[in-house]
Amino acid sequence: MKVFGIAGYSGSGKTTLIERMLPVIRARGLRVSLIKHTHHGFDVDKPGKDSFRFREAGACEVLLAGGQRWALMHELRDEPEPTLDDQLARLSAVDLVLVEGFRTSDIPKIEVHRPAAGHALLFDHFPNVIAIASDTALDVGLPQLDLNDPARIAEFILNTVGLA
Q1: Which candidate, 142, 121, 144, places its Cα nearest to that of 134?
Q2: How far apart are the first and last CA of the chain?
Q3: pTM above the 0.85 mark?
Q4: For 154, phi and psi rounded to 5 degrees?
Q5: What is residue 149's three-state secondary structure?
Q6: What is the mean pLDDT of residues 38-60?
Q7: Distance from C-alpha of 51 to C-alpha of 72, rounded to nearest angstrom
Q8: Which PANTHER family match (predicted)?
Q9: Cα atoms found within 13 Å of the Cα of residue 58, Cβ hemisphere only
Q10: For the domain 2-40+81-161, what is the CATH code?
Q11: Which of 7, 107, 122, 133 would disulfide-bridge 147, Cβ 3.0–4.6 Å?
Q12: Residue 11: pLDDT above 70?
């Protein structure tokens, strides 16, 4: 599977960009999956539901299965957080996996940057950033993409990973 990352500060527009690129990539007949990393606690389950109760009772994994989807929840308990490679190994085969987060991973990335948000650029600290998507022209030595042109950004990604 080809893997490509989208990096940037919270609120920079990473999720919106990915959401707008997915239909463009799918329209080419490609299968796409996504891994999103978060530093914040999260739960996809609801208190009181059977699956929540099973996890609370100590189950390591709970798999929900239905006619339209299935979901596997795995409690880390005292285990270390899985790496990106660990997570990729769990996915079904697709043409492209987009990764939001995992800034330090060794995969090519686009940095999403909005100068108005007041954050510094990340690419100086993460050598795998190969382009910047921004809503403002920047004075940097990397290719720049218009953050408001998801089709062009998707094309850049597909060309980079050899799926164009």
Answers
A1: 144
A2: 14
A3: yes
A4: -60, -40
A5: coil
A6: 81
A7: 10
A8: MOLYBDOPTERIN-GUANINE DINUCLEOTIDE BIOSYNTHESIS ADAPTER PROTEIN, MOLYBDOPTERIN-GUANINE DINUCLEOTIDE BIOSYNTHESIS ADAPTER PROTEIN-RELATED
A9: 0
A10: 3.40.50.300
A11: 133
A12: yes
